[in-house]
Amino acid sequence: MAAAPETSEAAAHAGDAAHDAAGAAHGGEHAAVAFPPFDASLFASQLFWFAITFGALYIFVSRFVLPKVGAVLENRATTLKADLDLAHRESEAAERARLEAERTHADARANARKLIDEMRADAQAELNAAREKADDELNAKIAAEEGRIAARRDQALKEIGAVADEVAGEIVAKLVGRAPKAAAAKKVTA
Fold first, then answer.
1. What pTM value is reported for the model?
2. What is the rounded distance in angstroms from the CA atom of residue 165 to the CA atom of residue 163?
3. Which site in 24, 95, 142, 160 is 20 to 30 Å from 8, CA atoms measured?
4. SS3 breakdown of the chain: % helix, strand, coil, rounded to 5?
5. 2-6, 100-104, 123-127: lowest mean pLDDT where?
């Protein structure tokens, strides 16, 4: 029985050797044939199909792809130009609005200053008028009081002669012991 495995093993090796020999013969046939793109006998056919494929691809790209790409690029350029123009206009409008706001602010500040100055001048005029009125009232009161004082002084000066006569008469009466005559008292005070 031991011979049987050796026999089957030998048969297997023999089969492999025959297979290898057939493969070598078969591979030998393929080795003689060139790679198809490099086979000179196929160049004309390859050039023909290359020209047809390239022409079809050229027509497809030039008729369908490039117009769409060109339209997209043109649309993009138009949109970009429109956006830049809009941004420029908006920037100019913003600058005009800023200048207008600054001018309005300056005008408002000037108007406020003018209004404050006018109010200050009006208040000063009212204060001056009130001061003049108060001065006039005080001067009128002073003049009235001075007139009353002058009238009282004049009256007192008129009365002082009689009082002096009376006092002189009383002094003379005390010194002499009797009351002097009215004519003699007037002579003393005169």
1. 0.38
2. 5
3. 24
4. 95, 0, 5
5. 2-6
